[in-house]
């Protein structure tokens, strides 16, 4: 169990490029000789990618909500007018 936790921590350091050059090189060598470790690191990389994609999707949804509020609700009319003036002067 402890080895698995160490491998996960080392993989995280490697994937986030937080390990020293020597440690990174050693970890890459371990992956070359250990297919299970290599597969686990690839899976961990995929998880990081999915988390980033989900975070981006959430951020886009939040921005769209704010956009809809600012440009559709009557109480934000003065803001809409200011923005329109900025872009109409060009």
Into which percent range does the helicity of residues fall?
over 70%
Mean pLDDT: 90
- How is the biggest beta sheet arranged? none
Note the run of SSEs as H and E.
Answer: HHHH
Approximately what portion of the residues adopt beta-strand conformation? under 5%
* Total number of domains: 1
Shape: elongated
Instruction: Supply Rg.
Output: 23 Å
- Low-pLDDT residue intervals, each spanning 5 or more residues: none
Distance between the termini: 63 Å
- Helical segment tally? 4
User: How many E-type strands?
Assistant: 0
**Oligomeric state, counting identical vs distinct chains:** single chain
Structural class: mainly alpha
List the helices and strands and how they pair.
Layout: H1 2-15, H2 21-33, H3 35-72, H4 77-88
Structure, explained:
The chain has four helices and no strands. Helix 1 (2-15) crosses helix 3 and helix 2 (21-33) packs across helix 3 (35-72). The protein has 90 residues and is an all-alpha fold. The protein has one domain (2-88).
Characteristics of this structure?
single chain, mainly alpha, 90 residues, 4 helices, 0% strand
Short description:
With 90 residues, the chain is an all-alpha fold. It has four helices and no strands. The mean pLDDT is 90.
